[in-house]
Every structure is written in structure tokens, then in C-alpha cells.
């Protein structure tokens, strides 16, 4: 991408700040576009777990109406089974929250790196080699 920046800005004056800002915005817009979807999924997971718990409890009450309230073992097994969806929803939501925070942090680091590289290339005319901890594969994807 930095090489594309050099090709695009060759021969232009160094005061092309709007072009640099637009390039940064377009690039980071593609990186950030899925974060709202991830946030929505994280918010919905506990609610789906709660829905599973409510339906499980309805099933427990259905068993209680048929078998009576004297069978505590059957009730306990049903209640235990009904709470599993809530726990699963919370585990998925907490895991997703951690993953989303990591992704946002990574996006911010990449945005800062891109801005730094474009600023350096604008001031010096060449891109210094900076180690980001990433290597580029043949297809252009980043790997660690």
C-alpha cells in the first residue's frame, strides 16, 4: 500500500495532506467495517442464552404440571438443563468481547503505523523499513 502511495503521489507537491487523509480513511474504513457487527453479536449472545433458559423453564413447568410438584429430582434436572444456554451465551459474549477489544487495538495500531509511514514518506521521499511483527505472504495476506 505504501508503494501505491509513492506511485500515486510521485510528482505531486508535499502538501497533499487531503490525499493522504483520504487514503487513510478508505483503508481503515475497510478494516473497521465489521466491528459494529461484532459488537451486535456480542450483545445478542446473552439474550439468546436467556431465551434458551426461558424455554427450558417452560419445559420444566410443563413436566411439573404433568408429574406434579413432588418429583424434585426431575425438576432439578430440568432447571439444571435450562441454565446451560445462559452460561453458553455468557461464555460466547465474554470471549467475543475480548476478541473485539483485541481487534480494535490491532486496527488502531495499523492506523497509527499507516499514518506514520505516510508522514515519513511525505517528509523523506522514501519509506523506511519498520518491523511491525508481520510478514507478507505471496498472496499479500499478513501472517505472524
Order of the strands making up the biggest sheet: 1-2
Q: What is the percent of helical residues?
A: over 70%
Supply the number of helical segments. Answer: 4
Fraction in beta strands: under 5%
What global shape is seen?
A: rod-shaped
Low-pLDDT runs of 5+ residues are 126-132, 134-141
- Secondary structure tally: strands: 2
By oligomeric state, this entry counts as: single chain
Average predicted confidence as pLDDT:
75
Rounded radius of gyration (Å): 26 Å
Order of helices and strands: HHHHEE
Helix/strand/pairing class, anyone?
mainly alpha
What is the terminal separation in angstroms?
Answer: 19 Å
Largest sheet: 2 strands, antiparallel
Protein described:
- The structure is a single chain.
- With 144 residues, the protein is an all-alpha fold.
- The chain contains four helices and two strands.
- α2 runs antiparallel to α4 and α3 runs antiparallel to α4.
- Helices cover 76% and strands 3% of the residues.
- A two-stranded antiparallel sheet has the order 1-2.
- It has helices spanning 2-9, 17-32, 35-67, 72-124, and strands spanning 135-136, 142-143.
- β1 and β2 (142-143) form a beta hairpin.
- The model is unreliable at 126-132 and 134-141 (pLDDT under 50).
List keywords for this structure.
single chain, two-stranded antiparallel ribbon, 76% helix, 144 residues
Q: What is the secondary structure topology, with strand pairs?
A:
Blueprint: H1 2-9, H2 17-32, H3 35-67, H4 72-124, E1 135-136, E2 142-143
Helix pairs in contact: 2-4, 3-4
